[in-house]
Amino acid sequence: MNRPSVSRLSLEPSEAHVVHAASRIYAAYIVAGKVTDGQEAYWIQKSIEEAHHLAKVTDRLVVADTEMG
């Protein structure tokens, strides 16, 4: 019996947060009917870029408790 190859993925916590935001953005595009057959990769990339942008803007504008000192 052949077992499918398994790839390992290890994300830093900040990367995981971006993935979670990107997945919600991507889901919203799906619900809105934006994602059509064959265009999934485009919308996934767009979702990740938007989540990353949100994270960078948040980091610039919001000072976390651990950053004060």
Question: Secondary structure elements and their pairing?
Answer:
Elements: H1 13-31, H2 40-61
Helix pairs in contact: 1-2
In the predicted model, the low-confidence regions spanning at least 5 consecutive residues are none
How far apart, in Å, are the first and last alpha carbons? 58 Å
Order of helices and strands: HH
Number of helices: 2
Strand fraction equals: under 5%
Verbal overview:
This protein is mostly helical and 69 residues long. The chain has a domain at 14-32 and 40-60. The chain has helices spanning 13-31, 40-61. Helix 1 crosses helix 2 (40-61).
Short description:
This protein has 69 residues and is mostly helical. It has two helices and no strands. The chain has helices at residues 13-31, 40-61.
Key structural traits:
2 helices; mainly alpha; 69 residues; single chain
